Amino acid sequence: MLVIRPAGPADLDHLLELAILSGPGFTSLPEDPDQLAERLDVSRDSFTGKLAPQACWYTLMMEETDTGDVDGIASVKAAVGLNRPFFSFRVVNNASSSPSLDIKLDHQTLTLVNECTGWSEVGSLFLKADRRKGGAGRLLSQSRYMLIGAQPDLFAETVLAELRGVFTPDGACPFWDHVAHKFFPMPFDQADMMTGSTDKQFILDLAPRHPIYVELLPEPARAVIGKVHPQGVAAMALLESEGFRTNGLIDIFDAGPTVSCPRDHIRTVRDARKLNALIVDEVEAELPSLISTDSVSDFRAIRGKAAIEDDVVHLTAEAATALKVRAGDVVRVKS
Predict the structure, then answer these.
(1) CA gap 188, 254 in Å, rounded
(2) Does the annotation mark 178 as catalytic?
């Protein structure tokens, strides 16, 4: 059985493997053991309540209970943009006209903004290639919303997600090559690393201070604005199924889109029910349900058979063991 559980310092080797497999442009998974170790320390301290709520960054691992293999990662940041700015380009539509010439024009511009301060962020969704089937990706994705739903007051009223932008098969990034690199004269990987490891002052120092007219950009750059990396198409579909929508913001380096949704309107947050667990020998159910604990500190999530009767949910012993719950414990279930 696959179980989603909190990540901690013991997961460093697993996290480094996933970071290497994720490839370029996955800002939250740098191939840097020191950064990853620090992230795992933050995750441990987040789940154990040692950090202020807005400083928490919860990292989740997808583990196969039979083998102990870790095949995926996801995360939730309680708040972004508080200690370090959260920069984006806003795609702005500008209308102009000349009545005397009977001409009307629409121009798009890219303007540097910092609009998401204090929002929560779901991200770092990545699975090994051989796990991208059979519902594993959906389980990993939805587990983040079950975590938020367990204690909504720990998270902001608006939740965002950033999608990786387009890269060519040889690893080139058209938007970076034709636009961002003009302002940040360094390799993409270096800028990407500095985004996660510094206070981002270099962005404030070097980023364009005036709007960039999209019509003046080379076609390869225009073509990828707001577009998702091929490996992110499935993740985008999962976000949209939960109610996330594009909001006109894009990444300043690769032009990938940002999507957002009010926390309480996220489908899994809204629809999951709190029920009392009853452990039985066998559960009759046509389809498996999403099941999680009702606590951030002891968070675990699975997909398994569940039969609901009033305010009670029947679970198998295997499911209860994976969740580490006992009879009478409160769990959250989304059918």
Answers:
(1) 9
(2) no
Question: How many C-beta atoms lie closer than 10 Å to residue 172's C-beta?
Answer: 13
200 CB contacts (<8 Å, ≥6 apart)? 84, 85, 87, 194
Residue 192 in tokens: 């990407």
- pTM here is 0.91
Torsion, Cα 26 29 31 36, to 10 degrees, reads 170
Q: How far apart are CA 254 and CA 280, in angstroms?
A: 50
C-alpha closest to that of 259 among 88, 84, 55: 88
Report d(CA 219, CA 216) in Å as an integer: 9
- What is the DSSP-derived secondary structure letter of residue 133? S
Buried b (16+ CB within 10 A) or exposed e, 113-146: beebeebbbbbbbbbbeebeeeebbebbbbbbbb
pLDDT digits (tens, 9 = 90+) for 33-82: 998 999 999 999 999 999 999 999 999 999 999 899 999 999 999 999 99
pLDDT band at 25 (very low <50, low <70, confident <90, very high): low
Q: Which of 178, 210, 229, 265 is catalytic?
A: 229
Number of other CB atoms surrounding residue 23 within 10 Å: 15
**Do 30 and 37 meet the contact criterion of CB atoms below 8 Å apart?**
no
Which runs of consecutive H residues, i.e. helices, occur in 48-187?
Answer: 136-150, 174-175, 181-183
Q: What pLDDT does 27 receive?
A: 72
Per-residue model confidence as pLDDT tens digits over 304-320: 999 999 999 999 999 99
Cα first-last separation, the chain:
18
CB neighbour list of residue 207: distance below 8 Å, 6 or more residues apart = 87, 112, 183, 184, 252
Measure the CA–CA gap between 85 and 115, rounded to whole angstroms. 9
Which backbone phi and psi does 265 adopt, to 5 degrees?
A: -100, -5
Query: Do 183 and 208 form a contact (C-beta atoms < 8 A)?
Result: yes
The partner residues of 123 in beta bridges, in order of sequence, read: 75
